[in-house]
Amino acid sequence: MVKAKQKRKLLLVIIAFVLLVIAVMMSMGIGSVRLTPTQTWQTLIGRGDDYWNTILWDIRIPRVLLALIIGANLAASGALLQAVMQNPLADPGLTGVSSGAAVTVLFIMLVMPQFSALIPLGAIVGGAIAAIMVYTWAWSRQRGMTPVRIILSGVAVNAVFGGVIGLLSILYSDKLPAALQWMNGSLSGKGMGDVYAILPYSAAGWLMAILCIRQANMLRLGEQAAHHLGQNVNQVRILLSFVAVFLASVSVSKVGLVGFVGLIVPHMSRILIGSDYKYSIPFSLVLGASVLIVADTIGRSAFSPLEIPAGIIMAMVGGPYFLYLMRKGGA
Amino acid sequence: MLKLESMSIRYEDKSVVRDFSFEVLPGEVVSIIGPNGSGKSTILKGITGLIPCESGQVFIGEEELRSLSIRDVSRLLSMLSQANSSPTDMTVEELVTFGRMPHKKWYKQLNDEDYRIMEWALQLTGMDRYRERLVYSLSGGEAQKAWLAMALAQCPKILLLDEPTTYLDIAHQLDVLELVKTLNRELQLTVVMVLHDLNHASMYSDKVCVVKQGNVRAYGSPQEVLTRELIREVYGVETDIEIKNNSNPRIHVLHKI
Predict the structure, then answer these.
(1) Which of A31, A133, A142, B29 is the most exposed place for a label (fewest CB within 10 A)?
(2) Per UniProt, what is the membrane topology (chain B) (predicted)?
């Protein structure tokens, strides 16, 4: 029975993976120039003509890969934050981690562009500062961290960093347009260079997330039970939070604010595959990648020739879904 | 087996446990009783290191717990808190696997030995027939037994229970306490539990420790400790005490003074 259940869950992970491959193929074909899956395949294996080659290799493949990486990062980050905070509403956006990272990135972009190589590192520092602020305010000695306090201090931290972003935008309005494109969570105009820049960090993050599975699982029994099972709960919290901040900040450094992936995907994965992180972390990684690819594909094709950043599509779909979760009592 | 030497614990500026010392012999069941706020649960939390102690030492055998890591402590003792919650989709069997975690390196998978121990814990607690049920869907008493099975899978030297019967109806209360007594008898497992019900403490313990304002007021067999005078002094309640054929005392609560 238990073995059968595990097999079913493994199968779900595999199905999600197959769907991801299909989403990647479809997404590469969709756009102002349409390619059939056969044409896409031909081009991928090196039998396409120059025109197809340019479209695929220079524009669409980097974009799809970037969506894949960022989606996986944000979903894993959300899953880990939800484990640490024992709160289904935690995600890098709502807890202020993303905007913390965004402030430092924007600061480097606008104020000291000569240090742009430090952007990923700066993002991690900014995200970590935001996480520390949220923890400090949400934690009370008597009651620990309740969902409401986390969300409230997340809102506060978000507001502070939102203010700083506004301030920077006004002070440096001359340099703003490029930064604005970045801030909206847009995946356009990126090349393979961007993919190579972010892939090593992200792959390291995925590996760390997978190595955190057992610790995250112990926290499911509550902080006291985890302690009695030999976990140093505070250390585990810091470790999981660090990995979550790392994944989210790396994503922000490349594409700005893409909200709700980190909230919705782990939640969907809990509904589909259950709360065991052994399955839900790999599942979230794959599902997050698919969701962002779909969002970005819709964003660039639905209102063509206009392009809607993936971040805006996610916010428009994610906001109502968030309200639906609250209604259902998921909070 | 378990020895506390002048343990003191304070919450911020309020001192909750003061210079508390007591010793539990191997194979004993000891109940800690006392009024609300007397520091009973805090003592257990101090033993497991959930709350830092201001001073004092805790020994299991020769080992001083504060010098061990949290993980090493979790191999020596298991503790069940007052209220336990598990994810809604966790089965009894999955819960019991967590009992093996203190004995596993973080990258090691469960092996045959672990499954054998889990099986043993499930059978002892009578939870083997519920193994595939969701813990969440069980009655309070059965859920408590599932958690006990997890604690047993930990293979502890000492089992600590913090008000294991608080949220249960009277039948399930007796069920759980009977199980604790059986485990004690069959495994020679040392048990220390915090209880509220004086009759439960009297029926199921070898020794009773009465705590008043964070200190030991009386410690000994139920006959020695549970007297009208002591209950009046500690709880401010008038009682009748019935002792039939040398059995443990039965306490009838009459009224408040």
Answers:
(1) A142
(2) Peripheral membrane protein
